[in-house]
Write a structure and sequence with these properties.
It comes from Methylobacter tundripaludum (strain ATCC BAA-1195 / DSM 17260 / SV96). Keywords: Membrane, Transmembrane, Transmembrane helix. The protein has 17 helices and no strands. By secondary structure, the protein is mainly alpha-helical. It has a single domain, classed as MFS general substrate transporter like domains (Growth Hormone, Chain: A). The radius of gyration is 20 Å and the shape is globular. The C terminus is likely disordered.
């Protein structure tokens, strides 16, 4: 695998480095937000669900807009640079919040930045490589992204051990954000076919292939049970995990994903995307059931490492499958719809999860998520996969 890995275009590696530094900054902040809300701003699971749901869902609308516009303008770089810039500005400002609604505003701004960059960046990656190496390219990108997500929590844990105030920890996020923006500026726009017609602006999904539209519905179902990962960290803390170990726990998840993302995503180039995604979603379901039932802090670490395998198996393969289903001239639009669907469902997912947890029990919330994942895996295999194989993509 090493030879094709190092043969990937410079743009793939450069975008991987951008994600590495951006996620190092993001994950320095991310695992500390639930702690900050609970211990400093005195907000509970309902507020956390509302913040994450609104921020992710609303920001996801921009993923469709930026994807469609990148097709129309045949340009991706400016959207990528702009998105990373907005996020780099928003994250350190968490240090100056005094109430949870201010956290909501800044988390929303951070997700706006992600909305601006995600779909054009995914299209840029897909345009840069051939179909035969698409899974590997997305897997490498996710591996470097998750490697940054290891560095961030480790730095956060070290700062907490050194008794650095949470507000000061947030300010450290500015460093990785600046480096990510500078690297994004050096990305080159991919060459396009001069005969490719300029796409008119359209929000419609009607022109996209039927298998892809079915795939979107299945992704929506899975995401309905995929509430914010902050609930996982909150669960670990409730189970008795010391506060300073919470960032380390998330670093373990990211490390597992970083180590296995490239090989597992590359495996999807050979055995098929659907098989790998179905397997990953089954792993997700088992993890959520065990976390809902488990009350022993000693089992938290192996369980979260298990969760990292789910991320490694699915993150790259899910996005590579999008490019397999559509033609190159509508890649940005397709990724816009994919990212919008996955993001917009986080609002009901996080609200439902937070409500079930607080009104019933953690087991009810985690059991609901596990059920959604299993049903989605079944539908992907029997409802989407046969139609996809009967109607192969024309993209290259």
């Amino acid at each position: 695998m090493l030879k094709p890995l190092f043969a990937l275009p410079r743009t793939v590696w450069l975008l991987g480095l951008v994600s590495f530094f951006n996620d190092a900054a993001s994950e320095l902040v991310y695992p500390l937000v639930p702690i900050y809300l609970a211990s400093v701003l005195m907000a509970g699971p309902k507020a956390l669900g509302l913040i994450e749901g609104i921020a992710e869902a609303t920001g996801s609308l921009l993923k469709l807009f930026s994807g469609v516009m990148s097709d129309r303008l045949q340009s991706t770089k400016h959207w990528v640079v702009g998105g990373y810039t907005v996020a780099a500005i928003a994250r350190p400002l968490l240090a100056f919040t005094t109430a949870w609604p201010m956290v909501l505003v800044l988390r929303f701004a951070d997700r706006v930045g992600k909305g601006l960059r995600t779909s054009p960046r995914d299209a840029l990656l897909a345009l840069t490589v051939t179909k035969e190496h698409r899974g590997l390219a997305f897997g490498l990108h996710r591996a470097m992204d998750n490697a940054g997500a290891v560095v961030g929590p480790l730095l956060a844990a070290w700062l907490l051990v050194e008794h650095v105030p949470l507000k000061d920890v947030f300010l450290w996020a500015s460093l990785g954000g600046v480096i990510a923006v500078l690297l994004a500026l050096s990305v080159k726009e991919p060459k396009r076919d001069i005969d490719t017609p300029v796409q008119r602006f359209s929000w419609s999904v009607k022109a996209l292939p039927a298998p892809f539209k079915r795939y979107l519905l299945v992704v929506a179902l899975f995401t309905l049970g995929n509430a914010s990962n902050m609930f996982l960290l909150l669960r670990a803390k409730d189970m008795g995990l010391p506060e300073y170990q919470v960032p380390l726990l998330w670093a373990l998840v990211s490390l597992t994903a970083a180590l296995f993302s490239a090989p597992l995503s590359a495996l999807s180039d050979k055995v098929g995307r659907v098989r790998l995604i179905v397997g990953g979603w089954v792993v997700y379901s088992v993890f959520y059931l065990l976390l809902g039932l488990n009350g022993q802090p000693s089992l938290v670490w192996p369980l979260f490492a298990f969760y990292g395998l789910f991320m490694a198996a699915t993150e790259g393969a899910e996005k590579a499958l999008v490019a397999d289903m559509v033609s190159n001239e509508v890649l940005g639009t397709a990724y816009g719809w994919f990212n919008l669907t996955a993001g917009i469902m986080l609002l009901p997912a996080s609200i439902i999860f937070g409500w079930l947890w607080q009104a019933t029990s953690p087991l009810a919330a985690f059991g609901f998520s596990a059920g959604c994942a299993l049903f989605a895996a079944l539908l992907l295999r029997v409802w989407v996969s046969p139609l996809h194989f009967c109607n192969p993509s024309k993209s290259t």
